[in-house]
Amino acid sequence: MHNPSQSGASLEISDLSKAYGSFKALDAVSLTARQGEFLSLLGPSGSGKTTTLNMIAGFTSPTSGEIRVDGREISTLPPYRRDIGIVFQHYALFPHLTAAQNIAFPLQRRGMPRRDVAVRVAEALEMVKLDGYGDRYPRQLSGGQQQRVAFARAVVFKPKLLLMDEPLGALDKKLREDLQGEIRRIHRSLGITFVFVTHDQEEALALSDRIAVFNHGRIEQIGTSRELYETPATEFVARFIGEANIFSGTLVRGDAGLALDTPVGLLPVETRLPAGRQASLVVRPERLEIGKAPHAGSDPHVPATVRDVVYLGSNRRIEIVFDDGRTGIIRGSGRGTDVGAGERIDIRWSIADGYVVPFSSSQTGDGHGS
Amino acid sequence: MLNDTRLRWLILFVPVAVLGVFFWYGVADSLWKSFASPEIGLQNYAAFLQSPAEMAVLRRTFLVSIGVTAVCLAFGYPYAYLMTVTTARLRTLLMVVVLIPFWTSMMVRTYAWVALLQNNGPLDRVFKSLGIGGLALIGTPGAIMIGITQILMPFMIMSLYANMVRIDRRLLDAADSLGASPAVAFVKVFVPMTVPGVVAGCTLVFVLSLGFYLAPVLLGSPQHAMLSQLIVQQVSQLLDFGRAGAMAGVLLALALSVVALGAVLARPAIERGYGENT
Ligand SMILES: Nc1ncnc2c1ncn2[C@@H]1O[C@H](COP(=O)(O)OP(=O)(O)O)[C@@H](O)[C@H]1O
Ligand SMILES: [Mg+2]
């Protein structure tokens, strides 16, 4: 029925800013979403995600910048002329209309004949697995069902671009995971471009083709889940995406090459940043190995004390404290991880598993936003 | 600490007792007399319903109340809407303008209308000076309607405002994003969601205007009497408590039917979660 290659729009945002008085809610943000792409806007609460979405939708007017859909500037169009589907966090279903009437609403606005409306509504209900629920009022549906209706209503008129603002935010974990699967399935089958706002990095990693990481009204990095995880552009991204062990210090050139001079010791690194620069070294928890005695080879290694061990079935999450008092995390399975709280250990990693990011003083380290 | 339920009953008891003695007793007594004075039977109701003159008064009372309700709705709806969309400062001003009349005695306000609407009063003279004949409304149902409307308008506005202010504006954004222009979104989303407020306001205004006495007496005339005047006449001049009771009984039945109708009309909204009891 759909032709995925043609049904998605491209989205280009350039230098988009929004100021409220002297406060910059959004500061010169640029990003693009390719046709049919699943792009997530990820960031802590207050970082400007909703502001961005509202400007794409047309509910908020930009202070400056451009928004183009399929190459066409849309900033001056009112929302009802933009033909963009939107799923609101709190569903925003019309309480006086049934599920079917809610879904029919955008079709009726487009003057579709009654017969066709009925057919399309039935298809949409089926797509979100709610056949038989058409006559219910929103009040009579569960949160998850309401979200499905909201989703059906936002795509039934075949927009080329769908915006979602934390659509799963109000649902419990199990339901979120079910709906994530369905959102992916529907994204693939419709082929339209999705822009998905979330503050939940796991959700963004699970769903997206690419993720734009927001912080304080700016984009820190845009990339695939893997790029963000393995090659974060900033310490903020490193902390926000997944878990990270972070060592900060100054880059120095020693006998064996470049190293980072940190409070816990001199750590060999590979980076293109020059010596003398302040920088942070990011090592992911699953890249760390545990030794009972100090490592004798040339790999970077640091002594630490085990604080807590959490068994998670397939692997373990080991919280450690470095000698400067900062904490770290190891994830792993097998015999090497068989340690107990209070035990002194030596952790090491291969030099290639460490990733150096430039030090930034504006770093907030909000961690996982709420 | 005092038992919670018992305390609640105690708190409830006082107003219920006061109402029971001073209000319900009066209602029950006049209803009783309508069936029992001077003798047991329906003759009071029969006489009332068979008197063409008195039926005309009942019809006029009904029509004036409908008119008052319609005018209150027509002016109150945009006014309340404006209150919900404007700036905080203008909203306060609009609210004060509505409430000021509450601080002025009803008698004073009604006499003010007498002065404005009388023969050779300001309104009359303005019309005469325009050369389109005089407009002395005093003594007509129109004057009664104006007087009652002015007094009941705040009830309509407050009922509508209480409803409108609770409507989630994101719903209008949603309608907007789905292709509805602001005008269409207003008609298709906003207006249906104000049904509970409209029903509440109309019920309140209609029922209150049915029993209005002061405005009809001061602004109307014996030829255009309202039912409340007829009742007072029966009691104070003819001393026919049975007949007065029957008129009050019919008025009460009318009021209760309208309240019941309102409850039926507002019920879907309450069930669907955008009515009064949510
Ligand atoms: N209408 C407004 N007036 C003033 N400040 C606002 C307004 N809307 C949003 N903001 C501010 O802009 C910043 C970004 O908000 P928002 O885009 O909603 O963040 P997010 O969706 O990422 O949580 C926040 O600090 C918020 O307080
Ligand atoms: Mg938000």
UniProtKB/TrEMBL annotation, chain A:
Matching Pfam families: ABC_tran, TOBE_2
Catalytic activity, EC: 7.6.2.11
The encoding gene: potA
Name of the protein this chain belongs to: Spermidine/putrescine import ATP-binding protein PotA
GO molecular function: ATP binding
Enzyme class per UniProt: translocase
Phylogenetic placement of the source organism: Bacteria, Pseudomonadati, Pseudomonadota, Alphaproteobacteria, Hyphomicrobiales
Species the sequence originates in: Shinella pollutisoli
PANTHER family to which the protein is assigned, alphabetical: SPERMIDINE/PUTRESCINE IMPORT ATP-BINDING PROTEIN POTA, SPERMIDINE_PUTRESCINE IMPORT ATP-BINDING PROTEIN POTA
Keyword annotations of the record: ATP-binding, Cell membrane, Membrane, Nucleotide-binding, Translocase, Transport
Record text on subunit structure and interactions: The complex is composed of two ATP-binding proteins (PotA), two transmembrane proteins (PotB and PotC) and a solute-binding protein (PotD).
Role this protein plays: Part of the ABC transporter complex PotABCD involved in spermidine/putrescine import. Responsible for energy coupling to the transport system.
Catalytic reaction equation(s): ATP + H2O + polyamine-[polyamine-binding protein]Side 1 = ADP + phosphate + polyamineSide 2 + [polyamine-binding protein]Side 1
TrEMBL record, chain B:
CDD domains according to UniProt: TM_PBP2
Keywords: Cell membrane, Membrane, Transmembrane, Transmembrane helix, Transport
Keyword Nucleotide-binding set for record: no
Segments passing through the bilayer: 7-27, 62-81, 93-114, 134-162, 197-220, 241-266
Subcellular location: Cell membrane
Location (main, coarse): membrane
Domain ABC transmembrane type-1, residue spans: 58-262
Membrane topology annotation: Multi-pass membrane protein
InterPro entries, per database record: MetI-like (IPR000515), MetI-like_sf (IPR035906)
Top-level division of the source organism's lineage: Bacteria
PANTHER family: ABC TRANSPORTER PERMEASE PROTEIN, INNER MEMBRANE ABC TRANSPORTER PERMEASE PROTEIN YDCU-RELATED-RELATED
UniProt family annotation: Belongs to the binding-protein-dependent transport system permease family. CysTW subfamily.
Protein name: ABC transporter permease
Species name: Shinella pollutisoli
